[in-house]
Design a protein that fits this description.
MetI-like fold, two-stranded antiparallel ribbon, mainly alpha
Length: 298
Amino acid sequence: MKHREALLGYAYISPWLIGFVVLTLGPFVASFYLGFTQYNLLTAPKFIGLQNYIHILKDHDFWQSLYVTFYYAIFSVPLDLLVALVLAILLNQKVRFMRLFRTIFYLPAILPPVAVAILWNWILNPQYGILNRFLGILHLPQPQWLVTPQWTVPSFIVMSVWGVGTWMITFLAGLQDVPRSLYEAAVIDGASVWKKFWYVTLPMISPVLFFNLIMGLIGAFSYFTQAFVMGAGYGGRGAGINNAGLFYALNIYIQGFTELNMGYASALAWVLFFIVLLLTLLVFKSSSLWVYYGGEKE
């Protein structure tokens, strides 16, 4: 009977197992091998040892893509977390039509990335985009979004704020899970609004902040679709003028599917894997200093 139950269980999960082996584990192992080969998709892979990884250290596009990605991550992740938290606090109030407001702020997060990129390509157009029109009405400087290299990455940072709906929802769930008794005790102790936020709200939602930070870092280092769609109009190959929008994931795509250097692209992908792994481990290591579970530190 136990043997039959085990077979039946494996039969039920077999679609997931097959998908995992074929679509995840298989490419994962294959990319590790291809990272040590010269492979152009047209001929058989040729083993070349560590030459791909040695070439990475000398490749200007690698360092440029690493700079662009770190630049984007350093500014976009904290900014998006802050905006999402502020929106969650505002949407946690008990006012009329609150469900409608929550839906409106969450909608951009579920729109197709390509559609979002095309929309923001129009919004950020320096000649007829509505953002520069609005800045002109306020008599503020009108940057050359996406056109000049120094404004390319800030354009993507501005755009990222528009899609913080998912982070906002998780923050909102965390805020609604904070016990009211803690706020009542803080009021009795004479705590101000700021002290209630700093000593009650923030520690209690720190696990949610920790989760969003990890997901934000992973998302920033795998940023691709918007950079490819929006950069194509200003650089020819999706990287913007002077490769100012050459994100790391976009560089992997260009090397693998445009230049047909699939072996080199696999090596780049593994370098990215270890960079993200290292950053994630650092965040996990620091979590003992600022993440609280059940009112106590991790």
